[in-house]
Amino acid sequence: MTESEQKVFDILGTQKFDIGIMGMWYGANYGSVMTYYALNTVLSRLGYSVLMLDKQAVETKGFEFELDDTSHARVFAKTHYKNFAPSLPVEDMKVLNNYCDTFMLGCDQVWNFTIAKSYGLNYYLDFANSDKKRIAYASSFGHEVSFTPLEKVAGVTRELQKFDAISVREESGVRVLKDEFGIKGTQVLDPVFLLDENDYNELVKESNLDIQEDYMLAYILNPTDEIRESLLKISEKKNLKLINILDGNPNKFERFKKALNLPNTVSDITTQDWLYYIKNAKCVVTDSCHGASFAAIFGTPFVIINNENRGAARFNSLSEMLDIKDRYFTGPGEITKRCDLLETYDRNKHNKIISMEKQRSMTWLKEALQKPKDTDKTVKKVLKKECCGCGVCYGVCPVDAITMEFDDEGAIYPKIDFNKCIQCGKCSRTCPGLHPYSDNFKEPKCFAGFGNDEIRKKSSSGGIFTIIAEQIIDEGGVVCGAAFDDDFNISHIVVDTKEGLEKLRSSKYIQSITKDTFKEVKKALDEGRSALYAGCGCQIAGFKRFLGKKYDKLITIDLLCHGGPTPGSFKKYMDDVHKDKKVKYVGFRDKDIYKWEINSTGMTVKYEDGSEYRKIKAEDKFYRAFTRAFTVRPHCQTCNYATLPRQGDITLGDFWGVFKYNPDFNDDKGTSLIIANNDKGMEVLSGIKSKLKLFETVPLDFVLRRGQPLDKPFHAEPLRDRFMSMAKYASFTKCLECCEQDTFDYAYFALKPQNMDDAYRALEEYKLISMGNFSVLLVWDRRNEEISPLKYQVYEFVREHFPAYVEIKNDDEALGVQGRCRNFVFTNEEYVTWGKANVAKGAKKINVRKLLPDNIKIPESDGEQKKQIINKLKKKLSYEDKWSLYRIEAGVKWRLKVVLRKIKK
Ligand SMILES: Cc1cc2nc3c(=O)[nH]c(=O)nc-3n(C[C@H](O)[C@H](O)[C@H](O)COP(=O)(O)OP(=O)(O)OC[C@H]3O[C@@H](n4cnc5c(N)ncnc54)[C@H](O)[C@@H]3O)c2cc1C
Ligand code: SF4
Ligand code: SF4
Ligand code: SF4
To answer: 537 CB less than 6 Å from ligand 4?
Structure first.
């Protein structure tokens, strides 16, 4: 037995537990302690045996929740939980697999990376074996972002993917999960709301306090002079004694007491005392989310001061859920004007909301616990965001159960035939998305170089690819790279003649499909031939994993790559921009009229009738969309392969800005950035050196400062998803116009759904309008929204299905829509005269329901009837594109107002 195994055995013996709870139950924060108490109690009442996992044996400097055995949290835990696992080093947490069937991550800021990072990836349950269930209940990022550094996103994503069920506490958490990690989460109630007031009354009875005098309670975690002044004013106005509770961490007490500088500041209280104070106060003023939650639970009137230091996300979420936005103040000064709020709190409304939400959250929790563990061994678990489309899984499957198919964004992904699959796990074991790896130099050697002018004329940059490829051909080897077919579909092909190389030369800015080339090149290598495989980093990573071993006679070249536009998006561009003529040639980087200069390069399309289309990068629509990364596949945004160490033996790219290092290295005909990533790369370069006109060392530092996708992915484009989902309905040109300018043809005021049928209909109408080739912004009216579980259902539905939407919570926000939308479509006359939406002067306003009355059923499948409806709508919706000055002014004013508000904050 290891030391850790022995340690656990000494305490738990041979006991087994249904659930091990991981989280900050031992922390200083009273509210946090209560979330774990509630979770533990709920699970125990559901009949599960629960083990509380202790804090790992690591120093967590800066986060002062390392309290000793006498701390209020541990004293509370000892008297209220039955079983504890001992504290273990981060790397030994896996010992607990011998004791628990399921690991559950609890509430509070467990996914705030600045906190979580001290524990490796333990807060993502990385220690759980693959046969154990992983569940997150109401876990929180605490803020509107996760603070996960870019280089850690892939690792965190991989662990999150292994969860069987994920729920988060805040609405913003659902967004962070989706946007940062591509993971679906569900919003549930903070566990403290899963218990009743009576449960907490039992704890209150355990307190030794007995206060007879009326008092007002201040529970302030981040004291300031401004808060102090407000508290004094309020207690004076209400003629109440003021009692103050500070952060539950004794190490902070003296500092915070001094900062608040008020009498009656109590220290050294138990968790039960904390509850007592909240329950028995006449009113509560707090900057703590849990302070407010418990005031609400006990029905004590309260107000909340936003605590920016601790993140606004949960305050927003709480105030929205409980419909208590009026009790939520951004600054303490404002509270003194609203002392009326400290008189009563509407328990009936609260109970109605909580009981509905509780039902929904408990259903989620029970289902998550009862759902059998998914034991699937295929690449099904690889999310779109993680899959680069390399096709290794397709190549290695021993029973041909995988095919590569295009999705509706026109990107390629594996599809598994589970009737054929034998669950051998080979596909997921080889997938580079799940196992990114490279043993190349972390600090590679860099060079500037180019070949002769003739080679460069037909190459994108310095022609290095051709020089290496010709050498391989001369040796009798094979070369694999990307080529167009006659219909301008792009895929990798294998050639073994110099004529064949012609098709591979020059960049085609579309993601190439590897098809069966991994097998073909492996065959050549196994026959003892030399081979060169060139492509983007993902393709090289995939090929190397496919081979599974090193071949002396193989050279790999990966390209610097800032994203691969999907083949579907290129087709859409061709069908839109070049639809009128038969195309016979496409060139992205022709060097006849375009110079080798980052902004002067451009698109060439030659037609059968002899005419030509020529546009520089800034004018061509495909290039513009590519440059903004609107058309790249999802994984390109967090690409695992645009990093150091690189994937190929050699990396090639354009050496933009090389003149800043040495003006002689640039003659406007193309200079390559050449990177040797390992000894073989160095050897290959020494071999071709004599064939190059330029080959000079350049320091890595200089190269890294060029901002190329060498050590990190290009950048994430927030409007990519909008472009791609719009592209399902509207033309390439329309999507580009809408995303570049962030403006829309129509604002579609539709959604205030009473049920999901309304939401489905809204989507159907949205699609029909879009199909008329209009850009549409769904305006989601959330003013005076009824609080119901439907809200969450609709929320998830809208996020998933509408390419572009905006939520409007007050009339003021409606003004923001004015400056972004040319015209307005309504579903209900109410909107036409609605508040400030009236400023939509000069805009076309159409009641779409009048065009499509209820009794007209929108046909589900495409067909003649649907075409007719679209045409009818198109006719009615067509407008002259003249902007109303009034609306632009309104939009500008609104934006200005928002900026000023932010600055003021
Ligand atoms: C999608 C893509 C994005 C790129 N982004 C950048 C960038 O951000 N910065 C930068 O400096 N360089 C980038 N490049 C690389 C650059 O365009 C040149 O390919 C590189 O400089 C090599 O030029 P060359 O003159 O040596 O050879 P060339 O003859 O121009 O290059 C031909 C090689 O590129 C391969 N190739 C062509 N199209 C594709 C494709 N669609 N997929 C995979 N391989 C392809 C061919 O197989 C061949 O191996 C990108 C290339 C691609 C394909
Ligand atoms: S990354 Fe490659 S191996 Fe993994 S699932 Fe996608 S296509 Fe298959
Ligand atoms: S698990 Fe094995 S059989 Fe099933 S799809 Fe993957 S490689 Fe093919
Ligand atoms: S950005 Fe990454 S995933 Fe996308 S095409 Fe380039 S190397 Fe492949």
So the answer is: yes
Predicted pLDDT of residue 259: 86
Average pLDDT over residues 141-149: 84
Say what the pLDDT of residue 856 is.
Answer: 58
Task: Supply the pLDDT for residue 67.
Answer: 55
* Residue 257 or 655, more confident: 655
Single out the residue of 584, 860, 576, 872 nearest to residue 727, CA to CA. 576
Closest Cα to atom 1 of ligand 2: 387
Architecture of domain 3-194: 3-Layer(aba) Sandwich (3.40)
Q: Ligand 1: distance of its center to the CA of 594 in Å?
A: 17
Contact 827, 851 (CB under 8 A): no
Q: Is 557 in the pocket of ligand 4 (CB under 6 A)?
A: no
Indicate which residue's Cα is closest to atom 4 of ligand 3.
Answer: 421
**Radius of gyration in angstroms for the set of CA atoms belonging to the chain, rounded to a whole number:** 31
Number of other residues whose CB lies within 10 A of the CB of residue 839: 19
Q: Let me know if the fold of 379-430 is the same as that of 743-904.
A: no
CA of 740 to the centre of ligand 1 (A): 25
Query: What CATH code is assigned to 445-563+632-704?
Result: 3.40.640
Pocket of ligand 3 (CB under 6 A): 377-378, 396-397, 399, 401-402, 416, 421-427
**How far out from the chain centre does Cα 418 lie?**
29
CATH fold of 197-344, please?
A: Rossmann fold (3.40.50)
Give the C-alpha separation, 178 to 195, whole Å: 29
Nearest atom of ligand 3 to the alpha carbon of 428: 6
Using alpha carbons, select from 221, 306, 296 the residue that is nearest to residue 30: 221
Given this structure, which CATH class describes domain 379-430? alpha beta
**What are the structure tokens assigned to 455, written together?**
């080679």
Average pLDDT of the chain is: 89
For ligand 4, the distance from its centroid to the CA atom of residue 549, given in whole angstroms, is: 23
Q: In this structure, what token pair is assigned to residue 24?
A: 């900050």
Compute, in angstroms, the gap from residue 102 CA to the centroid of ligand 2. Answer: 29
Q: For the chain, first and last CA: distance in Å?
A: 57
> What pLDDT shows up at residue 38?
97
Q: Ligand 1 pocket check: which of 507, 639, 647 to mutate, most ligand atoms within 8 Å of Cβ?
A: 507
Q: Which fold has domain 743-904?
A: Rossmann fold (3.40.50)
Residue ranges per domain, the chain? 3-194, 197-344, 379-430, 445-563+632-704, 567-627, 743-904
Calculate how far, in angstroms, residue 635's C-alpha sits from the geometric centre of ligand 4.
Answer: 7
Per-residue pLDDT reduced to its tens digit, 435-462? 888 999 999 999 999 999 999 999 999 9
